[in-house]
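Researcher: Here's a chain I'd like modeled. Treat it as a single chain, no partners, no ligands.
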Amino acid sequence: MKHEPRWRQHGPPPPWVHGPPPHWRRKRGWIFLWFSLIFGLMALLIFAGMGVLAWLLVRGLGNGRETAVLVWLGGCGLALILPLLAVGIGGRAFRGIATPLAEIMAAVDTVAEGDLTVRVADNGRRGQFGRLTRSFNRMISELQRADQQRRNLTADVAHELRTPLHIIQGNLEGLLDGVYEPTPEHIEATLEETHTLARLVDDLHTLSQAEAGQLPLHLEPVDVGELLADVQTSFSGQAEAGAMTLTVELQSKPADLTLMADPGRLDQVLSNLVANALRHTPPGGEIRLTAVCHPPHIRLTVADTGEGIPAADLPYIFNRFWRGDSARTRADGVGGGLGLAIAKQLVEAHQGQIDVSSTPGQGTCFTISLPIQ
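Model: Modeled as a single isolated chain. Structure tokens:
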């Protein structure tokens, strides 16, 4: 029967996948020696105690034949039982303590060397070491996920910065080489790309602060009705230009639609959602902003009658730099791919929740639930 290796890994197998690594065996050997010394000391103390007990028996009962036989039989029995007991306890302790401890210590060394694929086999352990093993594996899984997110973010940021930087570089080189005339149009095009870079940097800064739980929120009483009206006013021009209808509906009494929040951040969330709806709603469509009080939450919705989102894409729409159609660019009116990710982080910073439902060809609805207190 083939035994399962003590180490489980994800991704490319490490070189010691078919057996314990050398440092694992060394650690196990040192721990075994440590346990042996402890149990050896215990055995010495026990035998010394036996000697003292025998001496006390002889002093108390005298030097008769019966006393000698009693001491001899007791000594022989203890001499047989104690070593067996020590071996049994030592073996059980070694299997239950030293082996899992050596595995975890070796795994920690492997992680310190930069390998986040290592896992310690659970092997059905119970008690403290079983919980320690499972907690260690969860910790390494989270570290591996965070490391992968960091790599993905670095690649995404490099990709997003490359396009405006190339445009700025090309425009400036063209002006210096005389290919382009320094007309207001060329200068404005270059300036617009610098604005794109500035927005991207600001969005990344906001997103990183929110994900780290360090985003400052200036909480104050917010009238949700006034907040929705401000968003409607801000985007009414774009809606009219696209022949779309932008409406606000309050489904509860205005007095019930007040919560403690950062009005600027909530405006940013709703603006991102409305801007996204405007991009994906055809002329003649409708975008509705609604608010209703469902204690202990206030629920805000941004619904449109646009093209909708395929069901396969819904789990990913709050990811950084995600776009449903990778062929679409900013030239087609697509943003930098951070708006929904920022909206999610800002809502969660308010201890709220944001959800989405969509039917392709019929529209999309984003629902925000915020606690009243």
